[in-house]
Structures are given as structure tokens and as C-alpha cells.
Amino acid sequence: MKGRWLVALERRPWVPVIVAALGTTLLVPSALALLAPPEFLDAAMALGDRQLALALLGLFAIAASGFRILFRRRRSAEEEVDSDLGRATVPSANGAPYSGAETLAAAESRSHLR
Q: How many domains does the chain have?
């Protein structure tokens, strides 16, 4: 069973996206500093602090948008059934639901299906 904090994180998709983007933003420049030839490092130092900060910000934005697309949550079949429950009642001519129509609330939990 998932912990309560993990369920809360799944409902907020931007939290893992920001964490992953921060990790990428820290990992890529660190790997570049360790593995790049000295000429690349000299060229990066020649850019200046402002250009390097803008490059880091751009890397963060690209990583965040990429991870947001990757972490897109798809709805399960049970959630689609839950969202359609509110539309289960068919109104009659006077606006009241038919007597035989099922009147389930849209917010009714179906945790037994999950």
C-alpha cells in the first residue's frame, strides 16, 4: 500500500517534475566539468557568469518541460467510470430525474475498484 505522502505527490505532478529537473540541472554541468576537455571549460569560462546562469536556467526549463511530458499521468478506466457517474441521471421533461434512474454522486468513492 502506498504511503499517504506518495499519494499526495501523485496528485501534484509538478513536484516530481521539479525534483527531476533540478537533478538534471545539477548532473549535466557536473558531468561536463568532469568529463569535458579543457578547451570546452575554457570556452565556458569565457562566456561569463551571466551567460552561464542563463544556460543553467534554460537547461532547467527544458528539463522541466521534458519531464512534465514524461510524467504525464494517464487516467485509469476506474477513474473514467467515476467521472461519468454524475452524468448517469437522465432528466425528464420537467427537469427531475426519471424514477428508475441511478442517482449516484460524481464524488462517490470507488476505492474497492482500485
A: 2
CB atoms within 10 A of CB 63: 20
110 plus 63 within the same structural domain: no
Flag whether pLDDT at 67 surpasses 70: yes
Q: 3-state class of 47 per DSSP?
A: helix
Inside any domain, residue 96: no
Q: Are 60 and 8 found together in one domain?
A: yes
Say if 97 falls within a structural domain: no
Residues 45 and 30 in one domain: yes
- Cα dist. 104→23, 92, 109, 112 in Å? 45, 17, 10, 16
Cell numbers representing residue 92 in the block: 425528464
- Closest to 24 (Cα-Cα) out of 61, 52, 51, 74: 61
Q: Tens digit of pLDDT for each residue in 14-59?
A: 888 999 999 999 999 999 999 999 999 999 999 999 999 999 999 9
DSSP 8-state secondary structure symbol assigned to residue 97 = B
